[in-house]
Specification:
With 143 residues, the protein is α+β, with helices and mostly antiparallel strands. 45% of the residues lie in helices and 13% in strands. The protein folds into 2 domains: 47 residues, no CATH class; 58 residues. The chain is built from 5 helices and 3 strands; from the N terminus they run αβααββαα. It has a 3-stranded mixed sheet. Helix 4 packs antiparallel against helix 5. The N terminus is likely disordered.
Length: 143
């Protein structure tokens, strides 16, 4: 079996990007400001004593996938260690089989799939005068 490493976000390196000292700095020209956040670039917004990191959806999805993968591998290593301890304390056919199953489970799932970011939602501007006054635009939540 051959394992291949998945290297998301340009070899796993996030680079520091734009730095905004105030929300107003980000708000003014937000579209242009946020366009500076290319793949792997993280912006920083400072508000009072808090810092916020801003990143693209596809970078977030890759980081979330990596975090889930780390959790899965951690659980797998713990299972392998416990199975090895049981086998060491009591070398029987059952304990050897338990260890083999644990190893097989870890080897059969080398990586979790990375989620792709959803397509951007596009909203079209519709002039208000295109709607008639008698149209009911309320929602009926009882249905």
């Amino acid at each position: 079996m051959t394992l291949t490493a998945v290297r998301p976000i340009q070899d796993g390196i996030l680079r520091a990007g734009p730095f905004w000292q105030r929300f107003e700095d980000l708000r003014v020209g937000a579209a242009q400001q946020l366009s500076q956040l290319s793949k792997g670039v993280v912006g920083t917004l400072v508000l009072k004593r808090q810092q916020y990191r801003i990143l693209r959806e596809d970078d977030f999805q890759e980081l979330q996938g990596l975090a889930a993968d780390v959790h899965r591998v951690s659980d797998g290593v713990e299972l392998l260690i416990r199975a090895a301890i049981v086998w060491k304390e009591n070398d029987t056919e059952n304990t050897r089989e338990l260890l083999a199953i644990a190893i097989e489970q870890m080897a059969s799932s080398p990586a979790l799939p990375r989620r792709k970011a959803p397509e951007a939602i596009r909203l079209d501007r519709v002039p208000h005068d295109q709607f008639s006054e008698d149209e009911d635009d309320s929602f009926d939540f009882s249905k």
